[in-house]
Structure formats: structure tokens, C-alpha cells
Amino acid sequence: MTSIKDSLYSQPLGQISSFAFDDHVANVFPDMISRSVPGYQTMIAAIGLLAGRFAKPNSICYDLGCSLGAASLSMRENIAVGNCKIVAIDNSPAMLAGFESVLTQKKTPIELQCADIRDVKIENASIVVLNFTLQFLPVEDREKILAKIYTGLLPGGALIISEKLAFDDSRQHELQIDLHHEFKKSQGYSDLEVSQKRTALENVLIPENFATHQKRLKFVGFSSAELWFQYFNFASFIALK
Length: 241
Ligand code: GEK
What we know:
By secondary structure, this protein is α/β, with parallel strands linked by helices. It has eight helices and eight strands, in the order ααβαβαββαβααβαββ. Ligand GEK is lined by residues 21, 33, 65-67, 70-71, 89-92, 95, 116-118, 131-133, 136-137. The site of ligand GEK has 20 residues, from helix 3 and strand 2.
């Protein structure tokens, strides 16, 4: 997916408002996320491979917090089984309009829903993807949605969950944040862009550590939850029912 270059934080902003998934963000989103999340394209491609493995005939594959649909489109490319559909949900009208504008229907249909993922029913699911979405929910809401996903998954189903991570050890925490900022600078962002975006995301994106994620996934019922990818403080888990 091509997009306009992200320069939303390139000029000094007097007041930095909290980050929101509005029209401005949706317009530049593919460029923003690829230059901000180390390994993003690798994870998107791998989510397709995972969908190819886990998608079952007569089941639903969910993409929760789908944005412009990168994960849904990658899943669709790799799903070979019949009578399977992808349900892609996001509560940003700007994101869903962007996704709808590029969506052409193929063998595996993609159904778009503008809704809060905390309010939707998850059922008959063979694979559920939360690619950098859980981190935007209040911490106290996270267990409930993971429990709902677990209940809605078929036996043998998988949840793929990608998140920005925090670290208990303060040196490690600072190091990983610093390495991420170096990554962003290597992608062409300036110090001003990095620092203004960081301020905008404060209290909006709340990272947790690996142990917290793993413990919660097991607590809601997943029999196994392991990392399959990590690049600095960005990681992706696969949890098995
Ligand atoms: C990708 N998965 O490209 N309900 C529905 N959607 C939500 C909610 C909610 N409660 N909270 C946030 N979102 C995508 C990238 S971006 C990650 C996901 C990022 C949506 C929000 O509108 C946005 O589109 C998405 O979750 C997070 O693979 O920007 O770092």
C-alpha cells in the first residue's frame, strides 16, 4: 500500500494534543507505521503465513483494530481453505473509509465493521489478530477482551497479538526506547518528530512487559503463549487455545 509521507509532527507544535486515529493519521498511516514500528512489514507478511496455517473452512478470521487493512489483506492472500471470511473491525471511521476505498472482494470475503472491539461478538474464530491494538485499550479492559477472544476461538485456534513492550529493568527499558528512537531516526524522522510523537502517545499507548502479557493470556485460558517475533521493544505473541 503506498501512502503520503508522514510529516504530522515535523513542525514545532505549541500544544501537542493526544494522538488520535483521525483523517490526518489515516492519510499517512502506511508510511507512519512502517517507519515507526521496527519489523512491521515482516510481521504483516508473517501474519499472512499464520492465517494460511490456522484458518479453517467455515470459520471466521478476525482482524481487531484493522486500520487500513494490512493484516487482513495479508491473511486473505494466504488463506487457501474455502468458506472462510475475514471480519475486520476498527472504531476509527477515517481508517475504515481508507480501507474500504482500496478493498476489492475476492474468494475470501472481507467484512468491515466500524465498532469498538470491546463491544463486538467473537465467534467461530480460527484465528484472531490484534496487531498493535491492545496497547490502546485501558489496561483494566484488556483481560476481558482477551477472555472474550479465547471463548470465541475454536479448539486449536490462535491469537496473534503484537505490542510495544515495556521492561522491568530500568536500564533495559531506557536502552530499548533509545534503540527504537534510533530506528525512527534511521527512517528519516527528526528528533523533533520523535519527541512530539512520544508526547502525543503518552497515556494513549500503554505498553506492558512480556511477563504481564504472558500471564494474562494464560489466565484467560490459553494453553500456551510465546513470542514469535521481537525487534527492540516491539514484539508479537502467538497464543494457542
Ligand atoms: C495494522 N492492525 O496495520 N476498538 C476498535 N479499534 C480500535 C480501538 C477500539 N477500542 N482502539 C484502537 N483501535 C493495524 C495497526 S493501529 C496501531 C493497528 C498503531 C484501532 C485504531 O483506530 C487504529 O486503527 C488501530 O486500533 C491501532 O496491522 O497505530 O500503532
